[in-house]
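Example record for the data management plan.
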Amino acid sequence: MFGWEFPPHITGGLGTACFGLTKGLTKHGTEVIFVVPKAYGDENQEAVKLVNASDITIDYEDTTYQEYWNRITYMEIGSNLIPYVGPEEFKHIVEQNELDSIEKEKSVLSKKFTFSGKYGKDLMDEVSRYALISSAVAANSSFDVIHAHDWLTYPAGIAAKSVSGKPLIVHMHATEFDRSGENINQSVYDIERKGMEEADKVITVSNLTRKLVIEKYGIDPNKIVTVHNAVEPILNKGASGVKKNINEKIVSFVGRITFQKGPEYFIEAAKKVLDADNNVRFVMAGSGDMLNKMISRVAHLRIAKNFHFAGFLKGDDVDKMFLMSDVFVMPSVSEPFGIVPLEAMRSNVPVVISKQSGVSEILIHALKVDFWDIDALADSIYGLLHYNALSKVFRKFGKEEVDNLKWENAAVKVNDVYRSVVNETEIIKGAAAL
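Corresponding structural encoding:
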């Protein structure tokens, strides 16, 4: 299994989903070798054997590695791709850091390469090196199936399949259209499409994403399977004693402050709620390319006294935020799934989510609105804050609902996908032998 991040070192839902799924698979007897670009040594390895790509050396003089490299050079080395950075900042970084593609290729092909494991200016170099090393890992490991999570690891999955002949499954957690709208990065789109075309099966996290993959990438519907995400139970019982130490109700937003997550709609709805009731605090927890713009908008609306920017939260701090919240809001413009509302409901917090999210397909006890409908969003928040009977129903039944959304159940469906591709591969090999 190839993934770009693993708890506790995560930037969003991808690492959380990988951890939950691997634990679920282990409960059903599936062994997982998880290859991550950079391991820090404090990762929870109860469900996986973690392979640190930064520890693996290669000798490019070896013709074997040259063959591996030839299989993945369709990728552009040093393409200056920086996710979640606005165009002006991107232009400045490119001007200050002109990349020499020849030198970068030398770096990627060096004997030793230390991954940052981040999403910085050398991201495509790291994706390339990761794919090269993954070829070596695949050639020297015993396994039945290759599973690659999101576009960053698709080239690694393709390389591993080329070397081993084993079936490849790619997991689409978010598409480039979700991240960037219609103004997509062509390099990322090409990698996504190539990965899905080369895969034996594609797993999408929602039917919403499945539909997008069919329409925008032209992938055969027969090879796409939807497996909805789940949520881990709260492990830190001590966090239940958290107190907010203020009298006001708290409404929270937890996620990247980017176009995809709809932070501006949260702020506009906050203004409408505060116009009706000034005894409410709004908290936006996260970071991203729209942060400064959102801070300016809050100042312009003159609601800064009741609005707080908490920065990026992870681990226990996220759970503490939920335990202080009276309502959680996810107004995403395009959300392939959305694990965060499940985490909020797990903490007995009623949620308001956009209809444009994959998680809305499976949740019953959540208020659902169109992301752009500021009035409906504000009404939903106000209702949950002021009508105790409504809030009580969503707290009680929402908690029961998410407690039944377990990763081990999702893992059953993923194991079924594994068996199907292994069986198909064996049939094809048998037919070829005849």
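Summary line stored alongside the record: The first strand starts at residue 33 and ends at 36.
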